[in-house]
Amino acid sequence: QLKPKAVIVIFGATGDLAKRKLYPSLYRMFRSGKIEDFAVIGAARRPWTNESYRENVEQSVKNIDMRDKDLQAFSSRFFYQPVDVTNSASYQDLNSLIQELEEDFHTEGNRVFYLAMAPEFFGIIAKNLKLHGLKDSAGWKRLVIEKPFGHDLPSAKQLNEEIRSAFDEDQIYRIDHYLGKEMVQNIEVIRFANGLFEHLWNNRFISNIQITSSESLGVEERARYYDHSGATRDMAQNHMMQMVALLAMEPPINLTTEEVRSEKIKVLRAMRSVNPEDVDAYFVRGQYGPGQIAGSEVTGYREETEELQDSDTETYVAGKIMIDNYRWAGVPFYIRTGKRLAVKSTKIVVEFQNIPMNLYYENKDDQHPNLLVINIQPEEGVTLYLNAKKDKVGHAEPIKLSYRNNLTDHGINTPEAYEKLLYDCLLGDATNFTHWDEVALSWSFIDSILAGWRMKRPAFPNYASGTMGPDAANKLLSKNGHHWWPVE
Ligand code: BG6
């Protein structure tokens, strides 16, 4: 097993992401022996000390099966450095601390700078790291960036230019945590390791592909960020587009980062851009009103906080994406995602074309196409829907072949995805991070949808909490003779 060495500097160390995802991920890696020679510097504004920081780190991993001995050995590698990211002195202090820890922990000058904080500071931090010599060590340097990567194409470009003035593209790791999910990583294996699927994986045999990522939670404490973003920027521009790319890409000539990325980029280039005037033919937006989730009453989005009372932000988006290339011409890729929907579930349904004639069902109009369902979460696995004989000859019924990944360690929102991605970053494997070209292409696709929507005010709210979204999303499919397959 490779055991990468590094000092990891986490900007935003007192924040939610660090607590919920990063510390547990680091702890698991430490426990499983993936990392030994490492130290973590928590950098943030608050005047914490090493002691209070370590207590917080310990708290954040306390739900993981722990041994006290391990926990102390773990948290003793954490150091706190108060920083003002706009102030030169902060970077000088940080550099001295890094150098000291490099000696003590034998990390060979390898440095990860993890930006787990508000995006308006990404550019400033990247520039200052370079300016104050924090990139001048003997080992490798990597910059990890959380979303959102811009608000639209122009702002993403500007952010990218700022970062690129300090770091090279191959030093930049843009996180999309969906790419760390086990079953998202499995998409390409299921496709390219099985003739059964890959030979049929095209417009001659596939009718349509549906990607649903539904959530039952509302905006929770993130109203400020979310209201500025909306479901399309929050989920579609990144996670959903990445899944489309993995489902639609050509087989890469090998599994290197460059080859996989270049195939994904080709898909994003082939996506038919939607003319803003035609947005309604391709995309549907929604916002939740009051309703019931698991038997309890919940409020609508506009009632969540005072500042949301006139909000036109979409908490739901569904869309039809056409990929105009040889393999996919004519096959819709439907995506949908939203808050306060009936279930928490992420699934991909690949609907194969029906056979020309229905010999075995009494109602000859019954449609039971074969479906391949890739279950991303909460359960992980694959289900194949087939038809087989029922009771007497001449009758058929749908049957299911299911494979379920072992669930012991998995679950919604576990740090699993982050653990994989952090380890990849330490190893220098950027395959499951997004390249700038992917970010740019998906923004340019999304920007025209948003431009179309800006042309008129939506009639919100248009779906009740606890449902599967607005009716218009059903019409989007039914006008092509399709319907959403249930994801519960
Ligand atoms: C994040 C979004 O990127 O993904 C959140 O900002 C969303 O709004 C989350 O809830 C969903 O992630 P997961 O792993 O729970 O599907």
From TrEMBL:
User: Which residues are noted in the entry as substrate-binding?
Assistant: 177, 181, 215, 234, 339, 344
Per UniProt, where does NADP(+) bind? Answer: 12-19, 45, 84-85, 147
- Residue ranges of every copy of the Glucose-6-phosphate dehydrogenase NAD-binding domain listed in the record: 9-186
Q: What class of enzyme is it?
A: oxidoreductase
Q: What is its EC number?
A: 1.1.1.49
Annotated InterPro entries: G6P_DH, G6P_DH_AS, G6P_DH_C, G6P_DH_NAD-bd, NAD(P)-bd_dom_sf
Look up the record and name the pathway of this protein.
Carbohydrate degradation; pentose phosphate pathway; D-ribulose 5-phosphate from D-glucose 6-phosphate (oxidative stage): step 1/3
The alphabetized UniProt keywords are:
Carbohydrate metabolism, Glucose metabolism, NADP, Oxidoreductase
Query: Which SUPFAM superfamilies does the UniProt entry name for this protein?
Result: Glyceraldehyde-3-phosphate dehydrogenase-like, C-terminal domain, NAD(P)-binding Rossmann-fold domains
> Ranges for the Glucose-6-phosphate dehydrogenase C-terminal domain?
189-485
A Pfam family annotated for this UniProt entry: G6PD_C
| Catalytic activity from the UniProt record | D-glucose 6-phosphate + NADP(+) = 6-phospho-D-glucono-1,5-lactone + NADPH + H(+)
- Residues forming the catalytic site: 239
Function, as annotated, reads: Catalyzes the oxidation of glucose 6-phosphate to 6-phosphogluconolactone.
Question: Which PANTHER family does this chain map to?
Answer: GLUCOSE-6-PHOSPHATE 1-DEHYDROGENASE (PTHR23429:SF0), GLUCOSE-6-PHOSPHATE 1-DEHYDROGENASE G6PD (PTHR23429)
User: What family is it from?
Assistant: Belongs to the glucose-6-phosphate dehydrogenase family.
Q: What is this protein called?
A: Glucose-6-phosphate 1-dehydrogenase
User: What species is this protein from?
Assistant: Tigheibacillus halophilus
What lineage is on file?
Bacteria, Bacillati, Bacillota, Bacilli, Bacillales
